[in-house]
Amino acid sequence: MPGPMWRQIAEDLRNKIESGEIGGGSSALPTELELQEQYNASRNTIRDAVKWLVTRGLVYTRSGQGTFVVQKVDPFVTTLTAAESAAVGLDSASYLSEVSSRQRKPEISAPRVEIQQASGLSAAELKVPVGTSVVTRQQRRFIDGLPYSMQTTFYPMQLVERGATRLIQAEDIAEGAVSYLRERFGIDQVGWRQRIKVRVPDADESGFFGLPDDGRIAVFEIIRTGYDARGTPLRVTVTTYPTDRNEFVMTSGSIPEESAAAVLGAETGKPTGGHGPSKSKS
Hints:
Elements lengths: L4 H15 L12 H8 L3 H13 L3 E4 L3 E4 L6 E5 L11 H9 L5 E3 L3 E6 L3 H6 L6 E11 L2 E11 H5 L15 H9 L5 E9 L3 H7 L9 E9 L5 E10 L3 E5 L9 H9 L14
Parallel strand pairs: 3-11
Antiparallel strand pairs: 1-2, 4-6, 5-6, 6-7, 7-10, 8-9, 9-10
């Protein structure tokens, strides 16, 4: 016996989403009015059907923009270790290499450079008074064309005043900012402190990552502060990762390295045939 009208419409839309008929070239669901005309149904009936799809994670709504099909993504697995080259907050070259090694296509935007007044986190981590000028460099990162992370680094303005002018140029520092500061001033980053938390995305992050307005998809926020030999903060980097497309693995000690196939299996959720030979990371 057929169920209520809203349920029949919801099931029909679900079948179309799962078959790719809806959500292929365009991820937007037809408008409420279009669905009313298509199914010859009332506004409340359509809303009940869409609500059912929302509760099952098939679609989400964005205020003033419409209802969208949830995009299926393969999560990217990042390994957290004590080694600088393998930790979160990588410079561009390392990030591109790491993603490419997983047979994925990485992209990084050109840096957006601004001079701002330190406040909140940046003032606290850099140990400068609120209102002090700081340089920010933000880059947005993509994997297979999908936004995967957003990274913003704050530098004390005094580094630029001393001659580190590349920090305020809107171009990538290919060798990495740490290497650049070492070569320019002989200042070395001897250590860093990293904090990880999960929070609701802000409006900018929701817009960039295409996340629902209701906050049900959180973001990982990883804050890394680097220090020189005197214990002075050199920079603080804030990287955000949506939880629907990123996973993290933590390692310690001498362990076998996962093969590319095993990593791919972890990212797709499909079982694979085990580990490849061990190879240490520098």
